[in-house]
Amino acid sequence: MTKKVATLEKVSKMYGKDELIVKALDNVNLEIYKGDYLAVMGASGSGKSTAMNIIGCLDRPSQGVYKLNGTPVENLSDDELAELRNQKLGFVFQQFHLLSDATALENVLLPMIYAGVDPIEREKRAKNALDKVGLSERVNNRPNQLSGGQQQRVAIARAIINNPAILLADEPTGALDSKTTEDVLDLFDKLHESGITIVLVTHEDEVASRAKKIARFKDGKLIELKIK
């Protein structure tokens, strides 16, 4: 039986108070299984980014329960949430968020430093991750010496370095041209084929078409879950 890695149970998220309350998520139920490749879609304000923030433990539900690897997260302390993010989640964003004065290798090493991994093991794993994303010849290059697509590959290597339960990608091709977008999406396909669970937020049908499941949000509600 396929393992559930994340579960949203009647999750709502509200901002503001009294008559100014905005319901960003409204009673959402969603299950993410090991090995899923899920695209989360919706217009601006649909709730898709809020859903990703909760899945990624960047925010907490106002109502309902969110479980990551079976652990409810709403009562965890900020430090416990940070540790959970570092050990169980990997993040890729539209802007690459690389340290400009650090090499590709040093950028990829960073999550392992926080996780307390042995220095020799850190370097070995970082080089393997950069090789996996096709950058074994670029380990000593800094971000300004890399193309946009190469920078995103470094960010992906950094995101997978701690073997996350879920790789979360928020508009990961938004800053890339069409050819580089295809290259990065091909890489996501390969990572998924290797067994990595991926949740990808996008507003582009062409990007979502690579996923095996598509969750569509509207007005804070999950209105459709399509399984290919």
TrEMBL record:
<dbReference type="InterPro" id="IPR027417">
    <property type="entry name" value="P-loop_NTPase"/>
</dbReference>
<dbReference type="GO" id="GO:0016887">
    <property type="term" value="F:ATP hydrolysis activity"/>
</dbReference>
<comment type="similarity">
    <text>Belongs to the ABC transporter superfamily.</text>
</comment>
<keyword id="KW-0067">ATP-binding</keyword>
<dbReference type="InterPro" id="IPR003593">
    <property type="entry name" value="AAA+_ATPase"/>
</dbReference>
<dbReference type="InterPro" id="IPR017911">
    <property type="entry name" value="MacB-like_ATP-bd"/>
</dbReference>
<dbReference type="GO" id="GO:0098796">
    <property type="term" value="C:membrane protein complex"/>
</dbReference>
<dbReference type="InterPro" id="IPR017871">
    <property type="entry name" value="ABC_transporter-like_CS"/>
</dbReference>
<feature type="domain" description="ABC transporter">
    <location>
        <begin position="6"/>
        <end position="227"/>
    </location>
</feature>
<dbReference type="InterPro" id="IPR003439">
    <property type="entry name" value="ABC_transporter-like_ATP-bd"/>
</dbReference>
<dbReference type="GO" id="GO:0005524">
    <property type="term" value="F:ATP binding"/>
</dbReference>
<protein>
    <submittedName>
        <fullName>Possible ABC transporter, ATP binding protein</fullName>
    </submittedName>
</protein>
<keyword id="KW-0813">Transport</keyword>
<dbReference type="GO" id="GO:0022857">
    <property type="term" value="F:transmembrane transporter activity"/>
</dbReference>
<dbReference type="Pfam" id="PF00005">
    <property type="entry name" value="ABC_tran"/>
</dbReference>
<keyword id="KW-0547">Nucleotide-binding</keyword>
